Structures are given as structure tokens and as C-alpha cells.
Automatic annotation (TrEMBL), chain A:
The keyword Transcription regulation does not apply. This is Beta-ketoacyl-[acyl-carrier-protein] synthase family protein. NCBIfam families: PRK09185.1. InterPro entries: Beta-ketoacyl_synthase, Ketoacyl_synth_AS, Ketoacyl_synth_C, Ketoacyl_synth_N, PKS_Beta-ketoAc_synthase_dom, Thiolase-like. Residues 1-395 form the Ketosynthase family 3 (KS3) domain. SUPFAM superfamilies: Thiolase-like. Keywords: Transferase. Belongs to the thiolase-like superfamily. Beta-ketoacyl-ACP synthases family. It holds the Pfam family ketoacyl-synt. It comes from the Bacteria.
From TrEMBL, chain B:
This is Beta-ketoacyl synthase chain length factor. InterPro entries: Ketoacyl_synth_N (IPR014030), Thiolase-like (IPR016039). It comes from the Bacteria. Residues 43-216 form the Beta-ketoacyl synthase-like N-terminal domain.
Amino acid sequence: MTPLFLSHYTATSCIGTGLAATRAMLAAGRSGLGHCDFETVTLDTWIGRVPAVEDVELPPALARYRARNNQLAWLGLQQDGFINAAHAAVARYGAQRVAVILGTSTSAILETEIAYRRRDPATGALPAEFDYRGTHNIHSVSEFVRAAIGAQGPAWVVSTACSSSAKVFAAAARLIATGLVDAAVVGGVDSLCLTTLYGFNSLELVAATPCRPYDPTRNGISIGEAAAYALLERAPAELPDDAVLLTGTGESSDAHHMSSPHPQGLGARLAMEGALRTAGLAPADIGYINLHGTGTPANDAAEGLAVNTLFGSGTPASSTKGATGHTLGAAGGLEAVFCALAFTDGLIPGSPGTDTVDPAIAIHYERTPRRAALHHVLTNSLGFGGTNCSLVFSRAGGASR
Amino acid sequence: MSLSATPTIPLAARIAGIGLIGPGLDDWTAARAVLAGEAALEPATTRIPAPDLLPPAERRRLGAVVKLAISVGLQAVRNAEADAAQLATVFASSGGDGANCHAICETLAGEDRLISPTRFHNSVNNAASGYWGIATRAMAASTTVSAFDGSTGAGLLESFALLADGNEPVLLVIYDHPYPAPLAATRPMPDAFGMALLLVPPAQGEGPLLTLSGFTDAAPDTLADPALEAMRREIPAARALPLLGRLARGEAGTVVIDYLDRLGLQLALTELAA
């Protein structure tokens, strides 16, 4: 594929609102997880909650979109000058030439969950002020962000569970390649809600302790929330060495089960192979793998097997979900930004919460952050329903082998 | 008709297979006769068959939305005599499984918040894509896109871009199912509608040639028949009915399909068989 330039990017999660706090926490190998204190939830579990999301005010013109997910989307847009960069892209290319393609798994379903508690006892009707289109609908976040940045180009949401906001990079790259647009705002926004907390609990996939990816005692996920964005543009002829490029994308399906991965990690392997092929790279070129690494016994085992099959046990790899929790539909976008930071900061992130590495998984797992000069990194996002996506990012100064 | 943006690479595909299920329209054969004006539309509620491809245990877990998507996709694949296991897929829908969402929200509003595991794994917006993969053993890329009333346009754009990128066939499945009360009051939709197009690279197959010419601010095409036009307007998944009408009548020409404000998709249909 033709490499695309990540001209701007930003991330907001429980380890930081914006990049400065995020990179400090990644460098220190610290976790942002806390015991669940969300809404009326009574589960004994740990969550990655972004502080004060519920206090975020939206501009009056966008008031109909008020919902936790869009408040988080707005908070994320304000960080690191991202919204200004998006406005500038709209001004430079023209409003119709900028696409908005975002990933989410549950959008603003929290608002519907709360509205159901406030149904009219006689008729069962939802409260009159409930706005389905502005909040619950899965496209609400892309419609909101498109309006917030003044773009008038194509927009949609990719909702493929936990691979959603990795797949938006692939979709945007294809759309830019058609020539119909010049740039795309991509990323993911997913926020805490009762459906995912109680739903993963019903599958016995949430841990009672902070999650421990790739640890032999791992026993489930910690659910988090995040907003992460990148502005993708065609790469100019001249780029500084530390500029970050999207150079490979690979997508696949497990065709196996709705909620458990292919036991041999076949789908994950196909996605990684696709990403390497489109990047024109060999496994040995990859300096770091940001694993999906949710901390469930089945996911880590299957993904570890796939990584071992393709990369052997020499390539440094880690999961950052012990720091942020699993941010579901925002995880791919968030971890794409972590990959960009890995280049700029020369840092392989560690895996807070992982005390020892499962000896049954033969990969080079990094538990603590460490300095490294990186040229190419790969990130995995493996979703419910067996929808997988791997992305390769490259440092402009080392993009060719 | 002016275009505000045109692609810089050809975005063209042959339509190798079509599937359709809608109110009074059980399959593409029935729909073609109605759209061509050879048969009258008999008012009836949409009949959604149970897909025969999944084992009964798996089939019982499926919501009506997923049955609709899989059934209409299978129609297109079988009409083309294609191998479903080899196909990349794009699923497009304006919302998820409303009945399942209703059941979850009702449980969460109650005292005991025990959600059934099946309910939860059917709650993901890509449930249709997931079950399609399980049923067909297709391991190629599959995506699920949504753009509220513009979901048909989003599905078409993603499919054309995917086909141009990989030069491989793409099955596009577009589907919508009404929500139950009380959600129905906030998102009214008269009935379910699904359609599927098996799009293949122009050099790889036969069938009418469909080209995505670009974006336009021209008004979308409408249908002369009031009942069909109501279907197009009221169910987002039916926005491509004017295109299907041309296909049914064997009529070359351009069609504008609703996508987002001032951003309609202009398509051109050529090389139809006599």
C-alpha cells in the first residue's frame, strides 16, 4: 500500500487526558485502573475510567449529542491541538475532501440504559428528551465528530467489536486511495456502560483484580474507556525522520465462534500476514508488537501461538491493557497512538499487572518499559465475532528496509 | 448533473448476484418482477427465512436481524453460483439488533442484571458478520459499517474501495430491521428490508457493470410506485431500490443514491444483457 502520514494524533484514556500524561505513564510502566465505581454497577471488578467525562460540556450547537460517549469524544478532540489540526485540514483540503471514519462498539448506549430505568410506568415509553439519533445510534459519534470539526466528506462508523478502531485505518487508507478524499480523521471512542460490564461478566470474562495479560494467573479483562484520533494524509515527499507512517493493514475473520478466538490463532495470523504483506516487510523487520492481549486465558494463548508461529520468540511484544484496561471499540485506535509514541519516544511499553509471563506461551514478552530505537511496529486488534485487524506503522526515517 | 468529487482510480464492478428480502418481496426473482412492472406489489409483512447453512443449535441463537442479513447474502451468492467461503464481506446497517438491545436494556433496568451470554454476544453490531463467517467458513476480511440513514451509501463506498484495493470479489449486505417498543417510537421503521450485491472485478466475471462515478448534490432518484417509494424513504437499507429498478428493467443509466447531506452517490449502470 501507499504509506499514509499520521500528521496529528492524540489519546485520552485512564492513563492520561492527552499525550503528555499518557507518555509519562507509559514510560513509568504505570496502570490507570481502579476498582469499579461506575454508575450503579455493583460488580467486583477493575475499570479504566477517564476522570470527569460526565462533566464535559458540549458546545450549544452540538447539544443533542450529549451522552457519555460523545462527551469523551469531545474531551479527546480538545487534547494536543487535535481539533485545530482537523479544522486546518478541512480549511486546506475543503470540507468535502475530509472523511471521518471512527470505531466504536457500543456508541452511547449508556443513555438508553438509563432511559430504560426512567420509562413511563403506565405506557413503558422512554423519556421525551431521549434522542436516539444523537446518542444511542452507532453512527452518533462519527456524525458528532464530523460536525465538531466542520467536515462534510464521507463518514461512517466501523463497529466490529474490539477491532473497530484498527479497521478504520484500513478503511480510510482505501478511501484516500480512491481519490475521493485527501485526508481522514480516524480513531475510536468507546465509553463505559452497563451492557459491556454486565455482559462480559455474564461470559465470566471480567477479572476481580486488575487484568494480567500473558500472566499464567490471568483470568479476565478490565474494561476501560478511551478516545483516540489520528489525522491521516498522503505522505509529502519530504518528512522528518521521526514522522510516523501507516504502512500496512491486514484484516481477516476467524469463522470460528462469536465470543472465543480460533484456538490456534489462525485468524490473528492471517491478519498479521496481511499487514506485513501490504507493508512489504518480513517478520524480522518488526521491532515491537503491541499485542491485543486482553488477559483472558483463551485470547492470550491463541494470539501468543499465532505470534510465535509467525515471529518466533525473538520479537519484543507486550500488551498495554494492564495500563488502560480493554477499551473495546477504542482499543485499536488507542494502541495505534501508543505505537506512534513508541517511535517518537524510543520506548517499548511494558505490561503493568503482569508479574510473570506464562511459560506455555513462547514469545518475547516485555513486562517493563524499555528504551529501543524502532523502525517498524505492528499492533493487533482481535474482535468478538472473530473480526481481526493488524496494522503496521513505520518511522519515516526507517521506512525502507 | 454535476459531480463534486470523482475518483482518481476506476471504481467499477460487475454485479454477479443479487439478493433481496422486503415487505411483500420474498426474493430477488419476486422483486425483479415487481420492480420491472410485470407484477403488482402485494402488501405483506417481510418474511425472513431461517438460513439453512447453520446447524440448528447455532440457528436458534440468531435474532431476526442476523437471519435477514445471512439469508439475503446467501441469495446473492447462490444466484451467482459463487463460493461464499472465498468472499470478503461488507455488512451495512443503520442500527444493531433492536430486539436484543431492548431485552438487555430491560434486564439492566431491573433488580437482577444477569444478561444471558447469548444476548451479550448477539449485542455486537457485527453479529451478522460473525455468524456469516461461522456459517460459510469465510476467513477473508469482513467489516460492518453504519451511517444512520446513509448506511447504504457507506456500504457501497466501502465495498467499491475494498474491491479496487484488493481486486477480489466483495459481497455487500445491507439490512435493517425495525426496533420493538419503546425504542420504535424513537426510530420508526415500518418493516424489515435486506439486499445484497455480489460485486466482482470487471475483468473477472459477467453481469451488469456498475460504476461509482462520485459524489453529487443532486436529489436522489425516486420510484414511481408509491409503495416502493415509501419503502425506499422509510427504510434506510432500501435506499438503493432505484438502482435495483434499473437492473430489473435491464435499463442502463445513472442513479443517485442518498448518502449524507449534499453528498449523494452517483452510480452508472452499463453493459446490461439484452
